[in-house]
Structures are given as structure tokens and as C-alpha cells.
Amino acid sequence: MNLKYLYVWESDKKKNLYNTLVKKITSKNLDDKVKVLSTKYIGITGKKSIIKIMPENITYTNFNETEDIDKIIDSHFINNKVLDEFIYITDNKFAKVKEKDKYYKQLRIVLRNSGYIDPENINDYLARDGYKALEKALFKMTPTDVIEEIKKSGLRGRGGAGFPTGKKWEITKNVQSDIKYVVCNADEGDPGAYMDRSVLEGDPYSVIEGMTICAYAVGAQYGYIYVRAEYPLAIKRLQMAIDKANEMGLLGNNILNTKFSFNIEIRLGAGAFVCGEETALIASIEGKRGMPRPRPPFPAISGLWGKPTVINNVETWANIPVIIIKGSQWFSSIGTETSKGTKVFALTGKIKYPGLIEVPMGTTIREIVFDIGGGILNNKKIKAVQTGGPSGGVIPEEYLDLPIDYESLQKIGSMMGSGGMIVMDEDDCMIDVAKFYLQFTVDESCGKCAPCRIGGKQLLEILKAISSGKAEEDDITRLKRISFAMKNASLCGLGQSAPNPVISTLKYFEHEYIEHIRDKKCKTGKCKDLITYTINQEKCIGCGACALRCPAGAISGEKRKPHNIDQLKCIKCGECYLTCKFNAINKL
Amino acid sequence: MNKLNEKIKLKINNKVIEVEKGITVLEAAKYAQIKIPTLCKHEDLHPTGACGICVVKVEGMKKLVRACTTPAENGMSITTHDAELHEVRKNVIELILSRHPNECLTCLRNGSCELQKFAEEFGIREKFFKPMVLEKPKDLSTRAIVVDSKKCIGCGRCVEVCQNIQQVWALEFINRGFEMRIAPAGDILLADSPCIKCGQCSAHCPVGALIEYEETDKVWGALRNNDLYPVAQIAPAVRVAFGESFDLPPGTITTKKIYALLKSIGFKAVFDTNFGADLTIMEEGTEFYERYNNNPEKLPLITSCCPSWVDYLEKYYPDLIENFSTAKSPHQMVGVLSKTYFAEKNKIDPAKIFMVSIMPCTAKKYEISRTDEMFASGYQDVDVSITTRELVRIANSGGIDFVNLPEEECDEILGKYTGAGTIFGVTGGVMEAAIRTAYYLFTKEKLKEIELNEIRGLKGIKTGVIKLNGKEIKVAVAHGVGNIKEVLDQVREAKIKKQKQPYDFIEVMACYGGCIAGGGQPYQVSNKLRTQRTEGIYKDDRQQPIRYSFENPMIKKLYEEYLEKPLSVKSHKLLHTKYKARPIYYK
Question: Is the backbone peptide bond immediately before A499 cis, with ω within 30 degrees of 0?
Fold first, then answer.
């Protein structure tokens, strides 16, 4: 009998369902029939409880974890009947729900295996063409062929800057050196981004296979995967995958009985964002303080311990095996003129269906937001989309029909980045958004170069002043001058791109800045210091509900008579505004 | 591999120039007589790329690049100056100023500060960006070097010199982002860290974040106090660098002008540390002779004139303490003799003698109270040790027209020196001086070829073999702690494995180039400057009528009248010291 896999979606906060299911399966003597697996990526999100059964690809959601579990297990595994009550999408229902389906307009290359295989079982990977690419490379292609294939595919680094991957490999290949390294950058750190984590947790082998193919092509002997320690499941699965691949002769000495040997080790990062910058990452692997160094020389020529080193990020590596199997022509047929293949985005914000998506390059932002993401929550108006995380910028509504690729995003002041995409609606304040990202880059700056170390802090302090009504008009000039200095004189990508959130919000929403500075007003109400709560004396009936709720004791008044707010005591929490049933609180 | 002298052609500001392959854009621009402003780059050090002021435009590159770290390549077209680059640089300088306290008037670097210079040149007349100074109290714990991280601009020169040149690893960047500053790892006090007080950090700091522990007020105080009998001595290396601060060419010998300067500001007697150097040679040379003949297991003998190096040995190589010469450093010898021999001879109460050493060195400030042996006279043998830079300030505030000051002689009996004494100030000099005397001790003949070129120069480790009466003495000279380590590790290894030692006699100086490039010398040190100062020292040697320490008539007199002979009981009491193992970290 075929083994069935029962995938359980679990987040960091939610951990009980897996244990419940394991117990249930055991108590019903289904252990040899069903294997329960925990996953953080299951294909849909935004539901309370999700399980998915493979290979039939049936997903159950929105069931009660204590009461309905028995019903589902009994029906599905014992009576072999699909339970319509909790079903989400099945393959045979696909046509019917196509319009609403999240997979509509998506194309899964990087995430081809995530959610479909047991990431802890190499056989699952092998069954889905795993290691066919390595076999093809080793026995049917020369190292030069491999590099040519990658070059022709048009694959560009998915870490943010978009350097052509094949060209990078070629540089390393052409450097004479006794030792060369291949490094996987898995130091994903953008707020809200979890693309790499999903690949590592869902499909670790594709990354390892990609690195192995590269090592063969460039002549490297050692590999490192630099992964942040905050990803324990990814680390566990990577280590299992490395061990298993070593055991099966797919990694280590004399891979597939050839003369080619390649060993991979995992290195844990302590969570410094700047260590995602390749030269800082190298310093960190070498055991030094994680600080970038000036380039050139580029790591492809002089990297880890001064040796030629290919560094690519997780998503890039996961593309490699598919390109080798299906060919560069297939890959380059997807995407735009300059950007080929697909891109994974972590879609979040004020959107109906947030989650991880993978779309061909050239898909428009509007398609992502409205067709895949289901549009804006509560049918509010879209204001902007932020891409590229703290290094990117905001894209206003007028550019929603822009086909996404490396160049187009850069042209309008944002960037691809590693793939965060945050949708903002009319309730979002652009100063607040810029402040959030600057707080992040200020916290994460290593402090080595003056423009980033001091400039970032200056920008943040000015933004804080603007959002609290303490700014002056010169501050806009200051923002512009500091941004200009940081962009041009910072040492690494972090500092050079750190002012992007400020530059882009200033470019498209300068009027909001002026409103904050000149009128001391924040229309969205996000900048608390600029809001004043007052009581409409005509509407107030003196019920006292607001005074009772006020945590600062700022509201007073006689019973049945209009109340007043003491502005000096008010902490602007908005409780009174939410409590009043008579619309008597004014928020200005 | 690159062929030597391979030339490349590139365009800088539309001017085609031909330069050697392998140099940076910054260096190429220098060839073209173009000055690109830099703040973090120091000629001595590997560029860190921290400040971002040297950015230039390279045709075909999207971003600006740092001239200090970008290799010049064939066919490059570079723009080093235009209005846009000016704006970038000015903004960066303004940003740095916003994090820098407004304390120029009370800062030790007022007038010599590199940041101040740029603020002036770039026409920055107001602090447009809001001041955001990171308040942090000064670290005065070593009483030799002061860390004032509030003023730190994060250029990283100190970390570079401390970790990569000196390999001491006392200073490190701590914290991240805006909070980043320099401090010993773990944010402990500098005195509790591995710091050896060499002061190279202070000689390389572009601003006032790392400075010498200023003691000019103590000197003025002593000069004002009529109860005291202030005396001074100057170290070998001071005389060839001091003039730089008065626009004299580097290497100019200003010995007699400095004597005159000291006398004119009120010192009652002026001595010369070179006399102490001659005396050190007598003691150390004899020590070597004794060990070589009677105690060969205590070889190699390692010199001990450098207090930074002594500190380093006590911390990192306590197992080699028995190899260390017990002879004190020259200025300590002069110090103790001023309060004993000189005092007795001139009937001065030694309690009233106030000895000021003028040294190229910050570690001497630490040395003067290092152990009980530094109080051998019954008083603190040297009361204050100031750096060359501090004496410059004393001279300026003392109203001295140094360049036109008439020369004066120094005082008897601790002043007369030989050529061997003066070369103590440069790497290889102690060894060379010692050999001149040791040769005599071994052979009873004078060495003819006295200029030992094989141990001269800026090579980090220099070795040689000296033939004495058929015996071969293997010598090594190392300078810069990083290089010393290499030699010491060979000695340690031989010791552990009970093998034959690779050397018999080793000279060490903690600062690269020797004392002429010490941590207390005038700023802007570079290899060119080191060479010029070194030439000055060797010139001083050649100019001396006597070039062997044992022929110094005053040294002879000293032994006849007072000490009897080298390594006598009295010598041991006054001129020798002890060492002990010390922890690398005190906490």
C-alpha cells in the first residue's frame, strides 16, 4: 500500500495540531499507512487550521482541531472518502475555483517541490527528478557547458542586485587557485520576508544540488551554507539533507563515483542583517566581526580566506537544477527581456490573501495585488506597494501596471531586493513607513562607514521629529542631502540603499511630508503625536464611558454633562474614540 | 602573476597617465599630482574604506567607488573632482561633524586635526545637521594613552594598526551601528586590556579620539616650583623628528637646539638619554659576553630598552623572561643616576631633583612606575615622561623661536654620548651599538666595519651572523610587534623542543622602524618619513668623534668613580630590573 503524507501547517506560535495528529494516527493504528509531517509552507495561508494530504493533494481547512479531527481521519484514511465539509481546494475542483485561486497567474519553479515532498526524505526529492541535473552535468556536460547553459538561461542573482549568475561563475572558474569555495547565502533578514526559509524547509535538496553543480562547474572543493540561527527547522533539515546526500554519494568525496569531490558545511549567523551582504558574510564565516569590506576585489575573485568564491542566495541555487534539466531555452522563455524566470515574493500588508507567491518576471504589480492577493482588505483604496524591504522603496498607485523586473523597479526608485512585498492602503502614513524601515537599517547598520552609521541615524531622528510635529521645513533639505550622501558614499549595499524608503516616499508623497511639517497633521492618524482628541460638547451626553476607559485619567466631567479631555494628560491611545457610542469624540 | 614594472595607462580628469600595475586609484592620482581628500586612509595602513570621502567617478561604473581601495586598471577613465563629488564629500564631512563634539578649542588635536582641516577647506560654517554626539567618559586608565571615543570618527586606523601591524588586539570596534565605537573587547578599561601602550593608535588617529596622556602641566608645575631642581633628558629619536613641527626637513638633527630650548624654559640641567644608551650597551654588552661564555643556556639574549615590548613579553611570552636582558632602558639609567651619582657629586638633595624624560614614546609614561626597580634611587627615578609632541607644545607656549635658537651644550656628567648611543633610536641600532662593544669585549680589538648594513633598514625581520674571534654570533632584529612574534615563536619552539636556538642575540622594538617612528612622535608618519628620520640618526652617528660606547670618557669616569665595573653589585642595584608574568586581561 502506498504511504500517504499528512502535512500539518504550523507556525511558530501554533504547535499543537501536529502532536494531536501524531497521537490520533497512532491510536487508530494508521502508522504504517500515514506519515504526519510538519510544514511551514502549505500553499495557502490566512486560515486557522490547515492540513494537506499527499499524494492526492487534498487540503482541509477551518476545522475544529479537537472535535473535527476524528471525523477527517476516519473519513479520509479509513473510509477512503473525501470530506467535502472542510475541503479547501482539490485538483479536480481547480477549474471551478480558478478565478479565486491563489495559484492563478503563478508559476512555481523555485517552489516546485515545496509542499509536495517530505523534505526530510531524499526519496521524495529523487522521485521528482532530484539529482537528475547533477547526473546530467557530471556525465553529459563539461564545466564550461554548465556555465554556458546558466549564462544562456539569463538567470540573475535573486539576492537583490541581480548580477548575472553564469557570469559570476565564469569569473570564478577563470581564476587560477588551488582552493575555491561555493557559498549559499541563507541569511534572509528583510522584515516580513521568508522566501528562502520556505525553500530551505520545504526543499533543502534543490539548494544543495544547485551548489554541487556550481562546484563542478567552477572547480570548487568546499561549500558553506550561511544560515541564520533563527531558522532552526531549516538548519535541521539542511543538515539532514547534507548527511543523507553524503551517505548516498551525492555529496562528499567522489560524487557519483567520479573524481569530483565537494563537501558542504553549515555556518550559523547570529542574525545580523548586514551579514547578508556578501563581504560581511565572508568575514562572519571567517570568524571575524561581520562588517563589509570595499569591493573590488569581488568575492568571485578573492572571497573566503582570499580564495575565489561563488556566493548566491537560496532562491538562485534552487533555480539551478531545473535549468540544467529543462534547458536554458525553456528558462529564458519565461520573464522579460532582461530578467528571466520567476521571482518569489512574500506578499503581505493590507491584502486579502497574504502569503508566499511565485510569479514569472514581468507580471505587473496590479496582477499580484488584485488577481493573486485578492485586492485590498476591507475594500479600501490602495495607496502604494513597498518592494525590496528596507533597501527598496514605495511604488505609488500610478505604477501598478508596471511589469516587475530588476530594471523597471530600479527605475522608479525601488528594487527587487530579496522579495518582500508589502501592500499599503489609504490608512498608511508614508512618514511612518519610512520611519519603520529606517529604524530597521539603523539597528542593523554595522557602523563601519560614516555615511551609513551617522546618516541613517540622522534620517531616523528627522523622521521622528516630523512624525511628532517637531520638524522644520529645512528638514526636508536635510533628508535629501543626507540621502544623497548615503546613497553615494556608503560602503556597502545596506548603506547605499538605506535611504531608498525616504527618497521614494519623498518623491511620490512629498505633500504628506509638508502636511506633517507645516500643518502638523497626519491624515491617516498613524503619527500619534499629531492627533488631538477632543469631545464634541453638543454630542456628549456625559455617560462617562470614555472616562472609565481612559488609561491616563485624562477625561473628566460631571455626570450627564459634557466631558472634557485634559490634553496634557492624554496619551493619544484612542480608547475614548473607540468607546464612545455617540460619535462625540473628535479625532483631528 | 603580474610582471614587475608592468605599466598601465589610464585617464584621470581627462589627462592620460602611465602608472605601475597594482596600485590604487588614489595612488595613481597622486602620480598625476591630484589630491583626493581622504580621512580614514593613512599611508602606513591598509585602507578600510570607512569614511567615504575619497569617492570618485569611474566611467562605466554605476556607483561611485572609493579611490583608496579601488585598483587602477588599464583604460580606466576617472573623474576625481567635480561639483557633484564635492557635494557628496561635503555632506559626508558634515555628517561626521554632526557626530563629533564641538570641542575644538580644548582638544589636543586643535590645529593638527585632519577633520578640522576638511571642515575648514570645504567651507563648513554651520552645523546644518543636528548634533548627535555619543557621550562617553574618557578612558584615562593607562596614564599613557587616552581613549576619548566621543571624538572617534570610526575611521578604523587605530584598530588596523593595533590588530594588523602590532597584532596586539587591544582595540576593537564594539557595538554596532550608530553606537559603534572603539574600545578594548568587552568594553573594559584599556589598562585591563592587552594594550602595551605603544601609542601607535595615537600616532595614527586623525582626530583627538586617541591621544597621549598629556603631562605638560606637570612639567610647567615643576619648572615654577622654586624648591625643585628640574632636570631633563632627551631620547635619541627625538632629535631627528622634533624639527618637523617647526617646518625643518624630517631628519634634521636638532640636538643642541633642544638642549637650548630646555634650558631656556628653566631646566637647571639637561642630560642626554644617549649617555644612558652608552651605559646600557656597557651593561647589556657585558651581560651578553657573560652569558655567551658562562651561561649559554640563557641565550638568546633579548634587548629590553622598549617598555611596550617589555609589557608585551610579560603578557604573552613570560616563559622567555630569563632570556631578557635585565638592563634598564637608557632613560631609566639616566634617571636613577641623576638622583644618585649626579646629586652626590653636585651636592643636591635628590628629593628635590625633578627628572623629565622627553621621549618618542607613550609607553615610557607607563614604564616610569612599572616596578619597584624604577625607584632604585629611593625616589621615583623619572618623575614625568613626556612625548616629543608634548615638548612641541611646551616650546610653542614657552615662546621659543626654535629654528633661530642658538645651540647649547648639554650638562656634565650625564650628557656626553657616542655614535653608538644615538643609533638606539632606530631599528637595528641597539644591536649595532652592542656589537661594536661586544666585539671589543670578545676580541680586545675595535671593530673596523662598524656600519652593519645587514641589520639596518625597514625590513621587518633582519638577521645576520657576526664573526668574533672565530666565533659566530647569530643575531636577529625585529621591529613592529607582529614581526617580533614571528622571531619569538622560533625561540619558544626551540626551547620547548630543546633544539639549538636559532639566534644568540635579538633586538626588539615594538614600533615599526624603531623609536624614530614611536607612538609619541610627530604625526603623519610614513615609510618615507621613517627613512628620513633614520638617515638623520645615522648622520648623527657619523658626526660623532667617538662611535664606541666603551670609549665614552664619561662612561669610563662613571665606572671609575661610582659603579666600579659593568654588572657590579652597585650596577645591579641601580641599573637592572626584574620582570614578572602578567595577565593579558585583568578582568
Answer: no
